[in-house]
Amino acid sequence: MSCTPIEIAEALASNFDAIIDVRSPSEFAEDHMPGAVNWPVLDDEQRHVVGTLYKQVSALEARKLGGAMVARNIADHLDRQSALMHKGWKPLVYCWRGGQRSGAMAWYLGQLGFNSRQLSGGYKAFRALVRHELENLPITAELRVICGRTGTGKTRLLAALSDEGAQVLDLEGLACHRGSVLGHLPGAKQPSQKRFETLIWQALRCLDLGRPVYLESESRKIGQLRVPEKLHQTMRNTGRCWLIELPESARVQLLLEDYQHFVQDVEGFCVQLDCLVELRGKDTVARWQQLARDGLWSEVFADLMREHYDPGYQRSLLQSYPLLAQAPVLALTDASPASLTQTARCLLAQV
Hints:
Elements: E1 5-6, H1 8-13, E2 18-21, H2 25-30, E3 37-38, H3 44-56, H4 59-81, E4 91-94, H5 100-111, E5 117-119, H6 122-140, E6 143-147, H7 154-163, E7 167-168, H8 171-175, H9 193-206, E8 213-216, E9 221-222, E10 225-226, H10 229-237, E11 240-245, H11 248-258, H12 266-273, H13 277-280, H14 282-293, H15 297-320, E12 329-331, H16 337-349
Parallel strand pairs: 1-5, 2-3, 2-4, 4-5, 6-8, 6-11, 7-8, 11-12
Antiparallel strand pairs: 9-10
Helix pairs in contact: 3-4, 6-9, 6-10, 7-16, 11-15, 12-14, 14-15
């Protein structure tokens, strides 16, 4: 059966029963093709051992040891995954550059009678495609940008728009971060930069770029991750903007709901605020920390909005989104589901 290499464009257009990434677990965790499963032919420790042997002893000794390890690991994967391998099973196999690691797995599966295909160029070719398309796909999209100060319900409005059938690109959701100094999500780790870009690429590919795409105004970074430059430029320079406004009391209530986890981790909240000392001053940050320790959360968030978020956000927003000056205003009385649904419907009714 065939185990010949297949080009990246052909691979993405084909229907495979499985996409098998044979790189090490750490390589897979950093990023991988959508839908891929990890069947490492060498784990991280084994790669280190073989690499050290190659440098310090000889290529032959490294290949002998590595070959034995690869054979045993492939056998282990076949034992564990045999239930998946039905008659006519068609897997795509890739490694870093489409070399020996994926070649070994693809060859072995081919010898068993499966129509296995090896990805020419491996993950490196896939990564090149992602980078290329992130430079070009955003240009063809009609982006509609929801702007507003912290606590105005931008993310919730995106969800309401999605519920009403709009196309939404939730960058903060993909980044696992709310985008502010307090934006770290409890129990969630941000993906790697490469993984973030792959997730954005995948989301863009699933959208109909002939229809509007709604997303939230973002700075260049969301937590520790950078928004792809071409996407960010398109958002800023050509994206049609709407400005969402919400009364202060409703904003405080929304922040209390979104940051409820800090009530259970007061000291963690105070540690997060330490990074604002240089910007807002030691005394101001100490006052906010004391309010939190006293359980006065409404006062904390009201102060943070007035003294930190709003001044900085207003300057940044006007500098980053020049079209905001002509943006229609979406004035909400509250951030209830009914109010957000009504606003989403009104927004979608606009041409």
